[in-house]
Amino acid sequence: AEEMAASGQLRAGLDRLAALIAAVPRDPVPRIARARLLVIKRPRTAADDLEAALALSPDPATRRDATILYGAAAARAGRAAAGVGRLTVLATALKHDLDVTIALAEAQAAAGDVAASFATLAHALAGRDPRRPGSADLLIAWAQLSLRRGDRAAAIAHAQRAHAGDANHLGALVFLVEIALEDGRADDAASLLARAQLLGPRDPRVLY
User: Fold this and answer.
1) Rounded to an integer, what distance in angstroms lies between the CA atom of residue 208 and that of residue 200?
2) Closest to 169 (Cα-Cα) out of 126, 142, 128, 200
């Protein structure tokens, strides 16, 4: 179904998932797959599917992935506080899972608690070597949040730290490409983009 959606057959993919959900209503996997397809355009439906999946699944890995996705869907569906609640519980259980930490920070920001969002990221970054795997992800999350808050200088500083720690970090490269274009530094943007294209030629962030 997800391959069908990726090839432009979203309706056919959703119909197939709906049939699977009707056939095996206690299987959380089709609900999570449908939520992944609908998280942007129909976040309420996605959030409903994920709440059902979380109620059905005892599997820790499945629950982790569903909770991370729920944070994004809930924020778009006007349920940001519910997303924060679920992610806070998960982050407490999985203290070293950076994907969960970043999802929690994003959910906190969506709920309007920017101070808590920065605190979550600061706690994860405290004493952490920028070259350590995962550090660049945290730094780019901070950069994106800073940019949304209008603090462009902090955003650039954190993106540069991410790039210095991991020159092959695609998120940092794409972020710095956008900054270079905004600043009118076409040569810098082209150089950074060429590197990003080598690392992720089919990544949507590079393509668009």
Assistant:
1) 12
2) 200
Do 5 and 13 form a contact (C-beta atoms < 8 A)? Answer: yes
Amino acid sitting at position 157: A
| Count of C-beta atoms within a 10 Å radius of residue 93 | 12
The tens digit of pLDDT for each residue in 44-63 reads 999 999 999 999 999 999 99
| 54: CB partners within 8 A, 6+ apart | 28, 63, 66, 67, 70, 86
The pTM of the full predicted model, rounded to 2 decimals, is: 0.87
DSSP letter for each residue of 125-156: HTT--TTSTTHHHHHHHHHHHHHHTT-HHHHH
Give the residue among 28, 37, 96 at the shortest CA–CA distance from 67: 28
Q: Is residue 170 over pLDDT 90?
A: yes
> pLDDT per residue over 114-124, tens digit each?
999 999 999 99
Closest CA to 170 of 129, 202, 146, 125: 202
